[in-house]
DNA sequence: AGAGGTTACGGGCAGCGTAAGGATC
DNA sequence: GATCCTTACGCTGCCCGTAACCTCT
């Protein structure tokens, strides 16, 4: 008989397009995945997967046929677990990728709530900039990404968290002319923001490019480092307003009043849709709830 | 996660109403079944089965709920196997209960065909009279019964094999008066037939009772023994015509011409309907085909 | 005493992880 | 050389079967 585990592994190999990725996603090793697939192929006496050297692998006809059943089986299994336990079993390991901004605002609250309400969930948090998180998610290295912007791929579910504008902030004593500050005033100073691939960087660059201004950018992937440097008077920072709300409130940073039209950025909780995402969905929903909670709004506003 | 095997075991415990029966049906031991159920109950943190001392056990509410999923899961699994292999995997152990009459007519042909076409099937044949076979089937001790008459229980599938009349046969020299022989002529002699619980016995008894005749019956559960004794002139045998066709053809026995209205008896291939009966169904169908084959008809006619 | 389920215990084997081995770009 | 899958191998843990035990009729 065909094991549930084998189908699960087969499903993720097909889904993520590689043995390695499936292994990472399922928290196991590549040989284990390999053995399962081989066993499956041996049992069904048919090759299921065309091993090509480049991502993604392709399924044979038989493989595609099996995938349908694998998906149905996983779905039935999780439906059963949900029905039997009243609610799905919220336990296991979840790997979350989080953008720095979220780490500094409401991630602690999410972690606290999870530890309190679901002590059997083990979290593995990786912090990185959103473009990297997108890669990690689509290669199966993380299960859930809390970051900027939706991922526009099929089968990825994006739960919008909250939208925030980009604020220009400086050290209180830092000299900036103009009220409101114009773009050219800002461009005279070094601008600190996230790394080149991120939305804040690109949005800043696009308005500057439109105005034909040149500028010294200080891209930096660490939010706390950017904040530190800004407080130390290195330049003007362009950061999500929520990320610096505390420092602005405490007077460590001063928010510039400008009329520069920077489009706001939207955070999302994104994850790959699969038959067994009850756990991840729950966490994403909880994240949305916490991110939008009045308490949080007040705390960071 | 819940194993396929656990669901299968749970299904059969529920279906057959006991741990022991399920163990027999699944070719395993009672402790193994017990352990699986215990593990399942532990995993779902709920009692699934009320252990009562008498058959059948009853399911708790949770147990009944799980049974639905177990059945769906088994069904999906066998649907998948069927779809993937083109045809279901015809291999494994099948326990067949066979009535003596069939053993002496076309069972060898069935066994030969199975051994030839499906060498991976292991047969375990038990021979007994039909009422006993019915018990064995409903308690899960056999998977398929080839015997007299349908089993009128829900979830039992009966495939009609062929109908045969009951013949009165005697040794060639045995003195019987009358042509055609009347019932009272027969009642003067000892009558050999199957044991008390069987259809031939009961049918003979009912016509005799209707005529208010008393008679000496020699019930015997072994067909070959009955034939032997009849050839030796012990009395008149009432047996399915097909069972003595060979002896009549070879002249070892003589068939009496009578006008006694004995209702014919019907053989069936009967088995319990379950989500995974592809193998048993195939054998039952093959049995029907062989039993009704012209070659067989000729051979026994 | 017998039927039916549980507990105890030892052995076998499946499946996993580590590490080394191709193959292809 | 880098990436990706496969093979080799030792180990762990699960699951099964045997046997003894419990409990109710």
Shape of chain A: elongated
Oligomerization category of the chains in this entry: homodimer
> How many separate helices of chain A?
13
Q: How many DSSP-defined strands of chain A? A: 12
Helix content of chain A: 40-55%
In terms of per-residue confidence, which ranges of chain A show pLDDT below 50 for 5 or more consecutive residues?
296-301
The largest pleated sheet of chain A is described as:
5 strands, mixed
Which radius of gyration of chain A do the C-alpha atoms yield?
23 Å
Beta-strand portion of chain A reads 15-25%
> How far apart, in Å, are the first and last alpha carbons of chain A?
58 Å
Nearest-integer average pLDDT of chain A: 88
- Label the structural class of chain A: alpha/beta
Strand order of the largest sheet of chain A: 4-3-5-12-6
Largest interface, chains and sizes: A-B, 22 and 22 residues
SSE sequence of chain A, one letter per element: HHHEEHEHHEHEEEHEHEHEHEEHH
């Amino acid at each position: 008989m065909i094991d549930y585990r084998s189908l699960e592994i087969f499903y993720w190999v097909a889904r993520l397009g590689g043995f390695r990725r499936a292994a990472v996603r399922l928290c196991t090793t590549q040989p284990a995945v390999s053995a399962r697939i081989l066993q499956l192929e041996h049992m069904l006496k048919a090759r299921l997967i065309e091993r090509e050297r480049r991502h993604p692998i392709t399924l044979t006809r038989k493989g595609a046929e099996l995938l349908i059943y694998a998906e149905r089986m996983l779905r039935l299994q999780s439906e059963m677990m949900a029905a039997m336990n009243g609610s799905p079993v919220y336990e296991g390991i979840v790997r979350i990728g989080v953008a720095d901004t979220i780490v500094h605002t409401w991630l602690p609250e999410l972690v606290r709530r999870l530890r309190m309400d679901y002590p059997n969930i083990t979290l593995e948090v990786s912090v990185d900039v959103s473009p990297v998180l997108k890669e990690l998610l689509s290669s199966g290295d993380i299960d859930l990404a809390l970051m900027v912007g939706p991922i526009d791929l099929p089968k990825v579910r994006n739960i919008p968290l909250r939208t925030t504008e980009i604020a220009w902030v400086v050290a209180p004593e830092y000299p900036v002319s103009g009220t409101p500050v114009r773009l050219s005033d800002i461009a005279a100073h070094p601008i600190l923001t996230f790394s080149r691939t991120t939305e804040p960087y690109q949005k800043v660059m696009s308005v500057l490019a439109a105005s034909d201004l040149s500028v010294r950018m200080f891209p930096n992937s660490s939010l706390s480092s950017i904040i530190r440097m800004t407080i130390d008077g290195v330049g003007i920072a362009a950061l999500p307003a929520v990320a610096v709300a505390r420092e602005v409130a405490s007077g460590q940073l001063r928010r510039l009043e400008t009329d520069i039209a920077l489009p706001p950025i939207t955070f999302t909780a994104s994850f790959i849709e699969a038959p067994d995402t009850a756990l991840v969905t729950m966490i994403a929903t909880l994240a949305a709830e916490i991110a939008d909670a009045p308490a949080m709004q007040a705390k960071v506003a």
